[in-house]
């Protein structure tokens, strides 16, 4: 499909620079097959059905933004994907000043050797020393805010908490699974009282999620890969939910992509561990999920293509036009949409 079919105009003032407070007070656009309804995230227990289960991504964002020097050259690095105990692929600013074998000093005793470049331009960084890389990043790194926020303000102490979900446990993401930012313990308790369960899986979100689609046709786009895991016990419980008539509702496109990667042609979920580069566009047949709670995405992005695959491209263009006209806040710190194709 032509990529320009997924374009739309977004006024810059619609981009949220801070999350809603409290988190579950964010606005929620309910998108069904035939209706749009303006709601609030805290109303979720009344919008879902008893027996449904929400699936969250429990990845934890690491301080993956680094500033350093190679000789007299200033070098910026955003870690992208882990390749080994001490090795990370990184998107590097001023990369033309970096050659394989160069040592980059990120300060506070943190150094890394530059290695080979991949096809997407990322450079392999091998961190030196014996301390775990996670400790090195805590010392020298910063929270990697999305580029559309970082271009308008600096990351600060608030972001260290604001950019983590209440489920954040497994360290390894360089971007938050932002749909889950809307949840609070109070909301989870209310969902449980309404007979709506929840499960977790892990997908370490990479910086590639923010890469623009440069191709003119979706068939020509190469999707970035991310590492994920869902264990057999969780898969079995989710299969039981569907067998009992409940819906699996993914919280975030990262949860959805891993669920669909773990589902077989028969629609059953199985244990999964490894990389996934699944690229979901209109025409895709969903195997596992019956709904999606997600934030509002960038024009011409793979994520807007994904939601268009679930609900239909024209339907999502209508929903986004409604959200823009009615003052919804967009992107990582913005408001949410609940997509239920059956309704």
Order of helices and strands: EEHEEEEEEEEHHHEHEEHEHEEHHE
| Rg, Cα atoms, Å | 20 Å
By CATH, the architecture of the largest domain is named 3-Layer(aba) Sandwich
The overall pLDDT average reads: 95
Largest sheet, spatial ordering of strands: 2-1-17-16-14-3-12-13-15
**Number of domain modules:** 2
Q: CATH superfamily of the largest domain, please?
A: QueA-like
Counting DSSP E segments of at least 2 residues, the number of strands comes to 17
What's the CATH topology label of the largest domain? QueA-like
Strand % is: 25-35%
Determine the N-to-C terminus distance.
Answer: 26 Å
Sheet with most strands? 9 strands, mixed
Shape: globular
The level of helicity is 10-25%
Instruction: Supply the number of helical segments.
Output: 9
User: Low-confidence parts, pLDDT < 50 over ≥5 residues?
Assistant: none
CATH class bucket of the largest domain = Alpha Beta
Helix vs. strand class: alpha/beta
Keywords: Cytoplasm, Glycosyltransferase, Isomerase, Queuosine biosynthesis, S-adenosyl-L-methionine, Transferase
Pathway: tRNA modification; tRNA-queuosine biosynthesis
EC number: 2.4.99.17
Protein name: S-adenosylmethionine:tRNA ribosyltransferase-isomerase
Textual characterization of the structure:
Helices cover 22% and strands 26% of the residues. It has nine helices and 17 strands. The strands form three sheets. Strands 2-1-17-16-14-3-12-13-15 form a nine-stranded mixed sheet. A six-stranded antiparallel sheet has the order 5-6-7-10-9-8, with helices on one face. Strand 8 (103-105) and strand 9 (111-117) form a beta hairpin. The model has no long low-confidence stretch (mean pLDDT 95).
